[in-house]
Amino acid sequence: MENNETKSFKETILGALDSFEGAVNKGVDKLKEETILEDAARKFKEILRKQLVRVEDMKAQGDFVDYGALETIRIGVCGGDGIGPIISAEARRVLEFMLADLVESGKVEFVDINGLTIENRIEHMKAIPDDVMEELKSCHIILKGPTTTPQKGSGMPNIESANVAMRKALDLFANIRPVKVPEEGINWTIFRENTEGGYAVGSSGFNVTEDLAVDFTITTKQGSDRIARLAYDYAKKNGFTRVSLVTKANVIKTTDGNFLEDCHKVADLYPEITTDEWYADIMTAKLVDQKRRRDFQVLLLPNLYGDIISDEAAEFQGGVGTAGCANIGKKYAMFEAIHGSAPRMIKEGRGKYADPCSMLRACVMLLSHIGLQDRADKLERALDICSFEEKKLVITGRDTGATCEDFGNYVMETLKSLI
Fold first, then answer.
1. Hey, is 19 helix, strand or coil?
2. CA-based angle 296:358:293, to the nearest 5?
3. Phi, psi at residue 361, to the nearest 5°?
4. Quick count: other Cβ atoms within 10 Å of Cβ 13?
5. Which of 27, 63, 288, 321 lies in the 20 to 30 Å Cα band around 307?
6. 77 bridge partner residues
C-alpha cells in the first residue's frame, strides 16, 4: 500500500510528464506552423517577383503598332473548342468576303491557328501550349473562338484560362465591350482592365492549410494608368462627355483604392470630360434603372468587376451571344466573343445552330482597329439590319431557327446591298 509520500512523488512525476508532453506537442505544433508559414511566404515571394518583372516590362514598352505601315497584316484565326470553331469559321468567311481585295493584294493574310482545344491544352498541361503561343505571336491580329476553362470539380486538371494566359503573354491590357440599344437610350463602352485585378494570378492561389485558402489581387500604377488613358482618349475622340469609374474602393482599399487614384490623375488631363465614381454592386443595380442608365457612357473598371458588369450590360443588347469584344495591347490585338464554348450545344448536336453574331460584332472592332473604319461601319450596319430591323432569319440555338451558316449568308447578302 502506497504511503502519502510515495503517492505525492508519483503524482509529481506524472504531472511533470504531462507538462513535458504538452510542451513537446506545442513545440511540434509551432514547428508545423512555422513550416506552413515559410512555405506560404516562399510562394508569395515568387508571385511578387514575377509581378515586379512585369512592371519593368511595362515601363520599357514602346508605342502602338501602326497597321498602315505594315507590308502585310497577319490575322490569325484560332477556333478554340466547343462552338468556337463553328462561329469563328463563319466570322472568318464574312471577313474574307469584306477584305477580298486586300487579301488578293497581299495586304492582309489569314493564318489558321489550331491547338487551343481543351484536349490539346490538357495533353500539354498548359493554358496555351508553347507551339501555339509561337503561332499567336507571329500574327498582328487574332480572331479567337471561345475556349473551355476547367473549374474545380469538373474532373479536368487545374489549367489556367486560355484567355487570361493570352492576355498576359501578349499584354492585351484593355478589354473593350460596346453595348448599344438606341431605343433604350443605351450607348455604353466598357473599358475593363485585362491583365491585373483578381485574374492576374488566378491559378497561383494556394491552400495554406486544409482550412485556409488564399488568392491574390494585383494592381500596378502602370496598369491602371494605361487603361485609363485609353478610355479617356476614346471618350474624347468619340464625343463622349462622361467616364464612370467603378470599384469597391470603400472595402478593398489598397488595390481598388490605388486604381481609383491613378484613374483620377489621368482624368485631370481631360477637364472637358466629367468623371464620376460608382461602387460595383450599385452599378449593377443602376444599369437596370431605366432613368439612370441613360446617363452612362464610358465605364472604366478593374478586371473582375469589368467581366461581371460587361456580361450584365450585354443582356440589354440581346445577351452575351450578341456581343463581341476587343482585347488591345500595344503590339498585339485579339478579338473574340464574350460568351463561353457552350459544350452542351455540341454534346446535343446543336453546334450548327450557334449564333455567330458575337464573333461578327468582334469583327466590327477588328476592322476599326486596323484602320478600316468604313468597312467596320458597313458590317455594323448590316448586323443591325439583320439582328434588329429586318430579322428575316432568327438564331435560336436550335432547329427552330437559322443555322450559323445561313445567318452568315444573310449578313453577306445585306452587305452587298450596302456597297
1. helix
2. 15
3. -65, -35
4. 10
5. 63
6. 112, 143
* H or E stretch covering 280: helix 280-286
Whether the pTM exceeds 0.85: the reply is no
Sign of CA dihedral 406, 408, 414, 416: negative
Q: What is the pLDDT of residue 33?
A: 83
- Beta 73-78 vs 141-144: how paired, if at all? parallel
Using the Cα atoms of residue 234, residue 236, residue 241 and residue 243 in order, give the sign of their dihedral.
Answer: positive
- pLDDT tens-digit series, residues 96-129: 999 999 999 999 999 999 999 999 999 999 999 9
Mean pLDDT for 57-63 is 87
Mean pLDDT, the chain, integer: 90
Separation CA 395–CA 180 (nearest Å) = 19
Q: What are phi and psi of 403, to 5 degrees?
A: -80, 165
Q: Is 207 exposed, middle or buried (0-12, 13-18, 19+ CB in 10 A)?
A: exposed
How is residue 400 written as a grid cell?
427552330
296-335 as b/e, with b when 16 or more CB fall inside 10 Å? bbbbbbbbbbbbbbbbebbebbbebbbbbbbbbbbebbbb
CB atoms within 10 A of CB 402: 19
Distances (CA, A) of 331 to 139, 173, 347, 406: 10, 11, 37, 35
Name the one residue in this structure whose C-alpha cell is 520599357: 60
Cα of 277 vs its chain's centroid, Å: 22
pLDDT interval class at 198 (50, 70, 90): confident
Q: What is the mean pLDDT of residues 24-42?
A: 79
Left if phi > 0, otherwise alpha if psi is -120 to 50, otherwise beta: which for 25? Answer: alpha
Convert the pLDDT of each residue in 373-388 to its tens digit. 899 989 999 998 998 8
pLDDT at residue 321 is higher than 70:
no
199-224 pLDDT per residue, tens:
888 778 889 999 999 999 999 999 99
Domains observed in the chain? 62-170+329-419 (3.40.718.10), 173-325 (3.40.718.10)
Look at residues 376, 383, 375, 389 and name the one whose alpha carbon lies nearest to residue 413.
Answer: 383
Contact between 96 and 131 (Cβ < 8 Å):
no
pLDDT of residue 397: 94
